[in-house]
């Protein structure tokens, strides 16, 4: 949505003079769409600042204004959020948890189209193509809302230009927690821009491996256990991880990140960074 077209010029000078002054929200962006996936998960889209440039996979600080109990002044309450939309999208998308007593998400979960959020336009992060050496196959490993940076990277043309094969694993407790990711991946088949830029059928490069741990679904178990037993590789019909050809990005809870990091190192992969690209990168989906 074009922010300029939303600014209705004030034509009635009297009305403008008597209307209560609207508090200015710093770095304000307007919510354009909200979708609730479960009672713990929602996604939303908002306007994108014209000056915001980011690399698919990066995160920014977003939030809402709140009254400081001490000073009584309005100030922003911010949290880190992966941008779930790709770098070329004219809007921004976020995929969010709802923590019932969470300072931000207890309120953020109630946003509606037309509301304003605060967005600090300073993207950062390690889940970027620049932090990896060239390879043939890329693995995206996610739990829960850790899918968000991969929602961006799966819609990024460079992912398919750089790799012959893209494997995305997503482990959640319950089946409904997989729906956002499943719908997004299904939607790639008919994504006009990606089909045009990368070539029709680009999505056949993707292998999607969703698993649940606490509710019955077609594939149950933690991805770490499924890889250790060899079941994941057999199901996917691929060779085990090889440092010469495989690259990986990890985004999930701390225990998952640490366990998978140790496993990848056993396979011979080394951790990279923006300043020192190597074979895998890792980022927390939230602070424990
Ligand atoms: C680099 C980075 C990127 C992040 N990206 C996202 C994102 O894309 N989407 C998102 O929903 N959150 C993301 N987070 C977490 C986010 O910053 C907030 O913690 C979250 O929005 C909850 O905020 P809150 O103020 O309501 O509760 P907080 O006080 O921040 O958190 C309360 C507790 O809720 C749990 N929790 C927080 N976030 C999550 C989560 N995402 N999944 C499961 N449990 C959680 C933790 O146990 C935490 O201690 C990210 C965090 C980091 C560090
Ligand atoms: N998801 C819910 O329905 C729910 C409901 C209420 C409250 N909460 C609370 O919200 C917080 C976050 O819950 P969440 O479900 O979003 O995220 P989570 O606890 O991080 O779990 C997400 C997925 O990661 C798996 N996992 C955890 N550690 C792993 C490891 N070391 N290796 C591989 N996989 C691992 C989990 O499997 P396991 O199931 O085997 O741990 C689960 O399938 C928790 O504190 C939880 O108590 C969650």
UniProtKB/TrEMBL annotation:
Residues 24-130 form the FAD-binding FR-type domain. SUPFAM superfamilies: Ferredoxin reductase-like, C-terminal NADP-linked domain (SSF52343), Riboflavin synthase domain-like (SSF63380). CDD domains: FNR1. Its cofactor is FAD. Residues 1-23 are annotated as: Disordered. It catalyses: 2 reduced [2Fe-2S]-[ferredoxin] + NADP(+) + H(+) = 2 oxidized [2Fe-2S]-[ferredoxin] + NADPH. Gene3D superfamilies: Nucleotide-binding domain of ferredoxin-NADP reductase (FNR) module, Translation factors. Its EC number is 1.18.1.2. Residues 8-23 have a biased composition (Low complexity). Pfam families: NAD_binding_1. One of its GO terms (biological process) is heme catabolic process. GO terms for molecular function: ferredoxin-NADP+ reductase activity; nucleotide binding. InterPro entries: FAD-bd_FR_type, FNR_bac, FNR_nucleotide-bd, FNR_type-1, OxRdtase_FAD/NAD-bd, Riboflavin_synthase-like_b-brl. PROSITE patterns: FAD_FR. Keywords: FAD, Flavoprotein, NADP, Nucleotide-binding, Oxidoreductase. Belongs to the ferredoxin--NADP reductase type 1 family. PANTHER family: FLAVODOXIN_FERREDOXIN--NADP REDUCTASE, OXIDOREDUCTASE FAD/NAD(P)-BINDING DOMAIN PROTEIN. This is ferredoxin--NADP(+) reductase. It comes from Sagittula stellata (strain ATCC 700073 / DSM 11524 / E-37).
